[in-house]
Amino acid sequence: MATPSSTRLDLDGNPIKPLTICMIGAGGFIGSHLCEKLMSETAHKVLAFDVYNDKIKHLLELETLPWNGRIQFHRLNIKRDSRLEGLIKMADLVINLAAICTPADYNTRPLDTIYSNFIDALPVVKYCSETNKRLIHFYTCEVYGKTIGSFLPKDSPLRQDPAYYVLKDDVSPCIFGSIEKQRWSYACAKQLIERLLKSGKVQQESLWDSRI
Ligand SMILES: NC(=O)c1ccc[n+]([C@@H]2O[C@H](COP(=O)([O-])OP(=O)(O)OC[C@H]3O[C@@H](n4cnc5c(N)ncnc54)[C@H](O)[C@@H]3O)[C@@H](O)[C@H]2O)c1
């Protein structure tokens, strides 16, 4: 792994000040890799929150690791933990990765999926808004639903046109399946939190400037 560089520069050529990053869902697939990258290639500090830490144990265990002290794990369920607000206050940047996002769960646990991707994210959005913290909230291409091409009648000549299979941010219409199909619970919940973040109306003067 590369060693953290003390001379990382922003796009204007100015040195980047080390941040304290509150990463929720840090023990998951994306979070664990992001923690590895942040530890090995930056000087940022990470407050890592999750209910599991198996995937980041190797970053936490050895006191001899060069980033010793720059990553702290907090076993915390954002559904019910009064520490969340205080920990968010300590951060310069919040990254929310916590979600139920496994396709098998959309069909079998639609309610949990909706809670996880919408209701449970609300306190994070609220605390970031109240304390004016920058929030990076992960979304998904699922919010686009189906392509127009896949929705066209089977014998439509338009099905041959590649343009009908392109999904473009902020332009493509959103075509979901029927309410009967629980498979769309994830996409709908993700789209709703996305709309809330985009509205900027939950709290005035808040920062909702990022999504991934
Ligand atoms: N992995 C992908 O290919 C992909 C694609 C598109 C979008 N995303 C989005 O990126 C984000 C992260 O995805 P991932 O693949 O790393 O998922 P993941 O399931 O690997 O990680 C999510 C983590 O969140 C934690 N978590 C869930 N609920 C929690 C709670 N209530 N309190 C604390 N921790 C909780 C889980 O324990 C898990 O470690 C999600 O929002 C997902 O929708 C991922």
Automatic annotation (TrEMBL):
Domain of life: Eukaryota
InterPro entries assigned to the protein according to its UniProt record, in alphabetical order: Epimerase_deHydtase (IPR001509), Lipid_A_modif_metabolic_enz (IPR050177), NAD(P)-bd_dom_sf (IPR036291)
Record domain NAD-dependent epimerase/dehydratase: where: 21-198
Pfam families assigned to the protein according to its UniProt record, in alphabetical order: Epimerase
PANTHER family: BIFUNCTIONAL POLYMYXIN RESISTANCE PROTEIN ARNA (PTHR43245), UDP-D-APIOSE_UDP-D-XYLOSE SYNTHASE 2 (PTHR43245:SF13)
Protein name according to UniProt: NAD-dependent epimerase/dehydratase domain-containing protein
